[in-house]
Design brief:
glycosyltransferase, D-Maltodextrin-Binding Protein, domain 2, 2 domains, alpha/beta, six-stranded mixed beta sheet, about 30% helix, five-stranded mixed beta sheet, binds zinc ion
Length: about 210
Amino acid sequence: MLRLAIQKSGRLSEDSLALIRECGISFISSSYKLKTEATNFPLEILFLRDDDIPGYVQDGVADLGIVGQNVLVEAGFPDLEVEALGFSKCRLSLAVPRADAYASVAALQGKNIATSYPNILGRYLAGQGVQANLHTISGSVEIAPSIGLAEAICDIVSSGSTLLGNGLREVETVFRSEAVLIAQPNLSPEQTDLLEQLRFRMQAVRRAKR
Ligand code: PRT
Ligand code: ZN
């Protein structure tokens, strides 16, 4: 038996459920159940907040998970990734108020930057030789410059319309992300075999879509 953790409700949920079904795995899901068992594959599905998924898989509470690389790497467990899934593509970017001068990342030296990704951003800035004050906030990051909390932000961007709507301009891509399948490091031989079956099916689903 394998336990797979997926996001309960959010941007990853629909595509995660669709992928499992496209792998030929049947299960009954209802919005109030936090756990369900597949009827034709030894798989149990747990529905969790995406932020909790890397830790649960690292600890072996869940054997597998589907999560964005942004959340996985920020949580500090990049090595759990076993398969890129090709959906929920987005980027983590730095943005500044549209009217502000910005020549290069050096312009952020000594500035206040609001983000929900202090680890990824901190490493990026260190690599660029820039020292800034990072303010970690968990949501509505794009509002920070207009309320005087920060001179710049670093947040997830997909279409760019949220930045535009808040008077911000994307200036650097810090990290590119997509949904990935992750696995706990200590699977039994039987579980490893099931994981390989699952990956084989996922790869076939992706090939069929190309
Ligand atoms: O409740 P829970 O904690 O489970 O969910 P959540 O609110 O933390 O995450 P959710 O559902 O918003 O996103 C889940 C994952 O989807 C993220 O971790 C990313 O890997 C991926 N993803 C893909 C995105 C986006 N696209 C995205 N556009 N995550 C967030 N956004 C947000 C972004 O934060 C910004 O506020 O959408 C806004 C920008 O979108 P655009 O299109 O205006 O640029
Ligand atoms: Zn979350």
